[in-house]
Design a protein that fits this description.
Blueprint lengths: L4 E3 L4 E3 L3 E2 L9 H15 L9 E5 L10 H9 L6 E4 L5 H14 L5 E9 L5 E5 L8 E5 L2 H5 L8 H12 L3 H17 L2 H4 L9 E4 L5 E4 L10 H5 L19 E11 H7 L7 E10 L9 H12 L6 E7 L3 H11 L12 H4 L4 H17 L3 E9 L3 E9 L1
Length: 396
């Protein structure tokens, strides 16, 4: 259990998420994420020189990624600090925040800026020489689509891992559609009162269209309205499968950032020190081959055990589960109601830019916890390679 690491209340932001091949499709995610961070830091009257380390989370390659960590540090205005690049698929945010917390716990760092960026649009295509290929042939890879469609170890597409769990546990198409509809209803709650909840943490993106013109993206782009009738009319993605395109997530683009620091420094940076969130524990797991949806449960159980609490002690639960069956399986295993967590939506609705997805959900969880007067929050989610990662945070 950790005791020293805190996230200041409002010491974070998430950009809106943009639809695949949408407004952010041609922007370098490192540059855009860092420039957005610089604007956010300035708006909050912070000095970027307070940060002594930066953790950059990114999973989809971008030009100049080789220099990613220190480059991002310089772009936010902290030119004199190093930065670490971390890439752990969908667990990138979870592990990045934990690594920052461990640095605070061991007095290695004082103030860490964790920046998570990704652009799944226009994903890179990598080639390598093939010495055995005739005529100068190459080995090639599409970073986004190839990875979505085949795990080199398990051998199947990501959706196949969810359908494997469906077949083993008896989850039905109707259950998946029910969860998809419920998550959309929860997301619309975040839009109430002129997006009151989202505006608590969401920071707009500014994109330079020309020297004189700037495009501002201040709300999620690419949200698909969900109805019972619409879900009923969709075909399964895989033959006889339980999931349609309505009950799985979609690729997206975006970024988020969280400050991780000590309790005293958090109080100095916080907008309300009584709402600062302590990073309590971390959990990780790997499910059996080809059953990624199962990984969220042991990761959550490890984090809860290390925090010294049970699921009954948790007031807010957020998950990155890209397929509806993941949430259903988790609810069954932890003996909780699938309809009562992921309030204000999930990546099933607003999409999955990879690295920043978990970070946005953690941020939403902190805001929800603040509205409820504090307590424990659990975030857990699956990641490529049949893995999972979880965090427990505490407010008050």
């Amino acid at each position: 259990m950790l005791t020293k690491a805190y996230i200041p209340y409002k010491g974070y932001f998430s950009t809106p998420f943009a639809r695949w091949q949408g407004s952010l499709a041609n922007e370098n995610s490192i540059i855009l994420g860092a420039q957005t961070s610089q604007r956010w830091i300035k708006q909050n009257s912070m000095d970027p020189q307070i940060f002594d380390y930066l953790i950059l989370g990114i999973t989809v390659g971008q030009p100049k990624m080789f220099y990613g960590g220190p480059w991002a540090s310089a772009l936010i205005g902290a030119q004199n600090i190093p930065g670490l690049l971390i890439s752990q698929a969908c667990s990138t945010s979870t592990t990045g925040v934990f690594q920052a917390a461990m640095g605070i716990e061991t007095d290695l760092y004082q103030n860490v800026f964790t920046l998570m960026v990704d652009r799944t649009s226009n994903g890179p295509h990598t080639i390598w020489p093939n010495p055995k290929g005739p005529g100068g042939q190459v080995v090639s890879e599409n970073w986004v689509m190839d990875h979505f469609n085949k795990d080199p170890w398990a051998g199947g597409a990501m959706i196949q891992t969810a359908e494997n769990v469906v077949k083993e546990t008896g989850v039905t198409r109707e259950q998946c559609d029910d969860v998809a509809l419920r998550r959309y209803e929860q997301y619309t709650d975040a839009l109430a009162n002129d997006r009151e909840f989202q505006k608590k943490y969401m920071f707009p993106i500014e994109i330079a269209v020309s020297k004189k013109k700037t495009h501002t993206l201040d709300a999620d782009e690419g949200i698909f309205p969900t109805t019972r009738e619409g879900l009923n009319g969709l075909k399964p993605v895989l033959p006889e499968g339980a999931h349609t395109f309505g009950s799985q997530t979609h690729p997206a683009d975006g970024s988020c950032a969280l400050i991780v620091t000590s309790r005293d420094r958090a109080a100095d940076l916080s907008q309300d020190a009584t709402k600062d969130a302590q990073v309590v524990s971390y959990g990780f797991s790997r499910a059996k081959k080809g059953f990624m949806a199962m990984a969220v449960v042991p990761a959550a159980q490890m984090a809860l055990s290390r925090a010294g609490i049970t699921i009954d002690d948790v007031k807010v639960i957020k998950t990155h589960n890209p397929f509806a069956a993941n949430d259903i399986y988790m609810a069954d295993q932890l003996k909780i109601d699938v309809n009562t967590f992921n309030n204000f939506g999930s990546s099933l609705v607003f999409g999955h830019p990879q690295a920043p997805t978990g970070g946005r959900l953690i941020i939403e969880g902190i805001e929800e916890l603040a509205d409820l007067g504090g307590g424990y929050m659990l975030f857990t989610g699956c990641a490529a390679g049949d893995t999972g990662a979880a965090l427990v945070l505490k407010m008050g």
